Amino acid sequence: MANIVKQELKFPTFKNLIESFFENDFPTFGSSLNKWIGATIPSANIKETNESFIIELAAPGLKKEDIKIDLDNDVLTISSELKEEKTEEKDNYTRREFNYSSFTRSFYLPEIADAEKISAEYKDGILNITIPKKESAIKKTQKRIEIK
After folding, report:
1. What's this model's pTM, rounded to 2 decimal places?
2. Residue 23's Cα: distance from chain center in Å?
3. Domain check: are 48 and 94 in the same one?
4. Could you tell me if residue 52 is inside a domain?
5. pLDDT band at 29 (very low <50, low <70, confident <90, very high)
6. Do 20 and 86 reside in the same domain of the chain?
7. How far apart are CA 55 and CA 44, in angstroms?
8. In contact, 138 and 50? CB cutoff 8 Å
9. Residue 51: what are its φ and ψ, rounded to 5°?
10. Same domain as 55, residue 97
11. Is residue 65 domain-shared with residue 78, that is, in the same domain?
């Protein structure tokens, strides 16, 4: 008699999520859930300069056409959704594979951000979004005034 191996697909339970919350250094609901479903959320770095905020988002393997950037009520949302289907027919069999991946990252813009002048560039797997500060928020360089 053939040995049958039973494989269980484990979905997160509330208890697993709570336990995972206390086991991780910087827990997030998304990261706990991602362990079970195999999803990834691109890493982001945020830099602040005197003139702007810069978001660097690691999104390798995508094309710029695959990425959407939306601004709604001072919330900047970056998202991507890819669907792929491959069919291979050989001799007496057909193999079909489906692949689906997506992500969404959202960032609240501070009041000093100039939403009308946001720009983005995608190069070598890195999405760079520049969010200029309003003119009134840019610190003026310090200057010494000579006394006469």
Report:
1. 0.63
2. 24
3. yes
4. yes
5. very low
6. no
7. 7
8. yes
9. -100, -20
10. yes
11. yes
From 43-52, 94-103, 109-118, 119-128, the region with the lowest mean pLDDT: 94-103
Q: Which stretches of the chain are assigned E, i.e. beta strand? A: 44-48, 52-58, 67-72, 75-90, 93-108, 119-123, 126-132
128 pairs with which residues across the strands? 56, 121
Distances in Å between the Cα of 70 and the Cα atoms of 19, 47, 67, 73, 119 are 35, 20, 10, 10, 12
Using CA atoms, how far residue 129 sits from 18, 45, 47, 87, 108, in Å, is: 34, 11, 10, 37, 14
Which residue type occupies 113?
Answer: A
Instruction: Summarize pLDDT for 74-88 with one digit per residue, the tens.
Output: 999 999 988 888 888
- The reported pLDDT for the residue numbered 88 is 81
Instruction: Give the domain CATH number at 105.
Output: 2.60.40.790
Domain that holds residue 114: 42-137
- The strands making up 93-108's β-sheet, listed across from edge to edge, are 67-72, 75-90, 93-108
**Number of domain units in the chain:** 2
- The structure tokens 């979004």 sit at 129
pLDDT in tens, 45-77: 999 998 999 999 998 888 999 999 999 999 999
- Are 73 and 28 part of one and the same domain? no
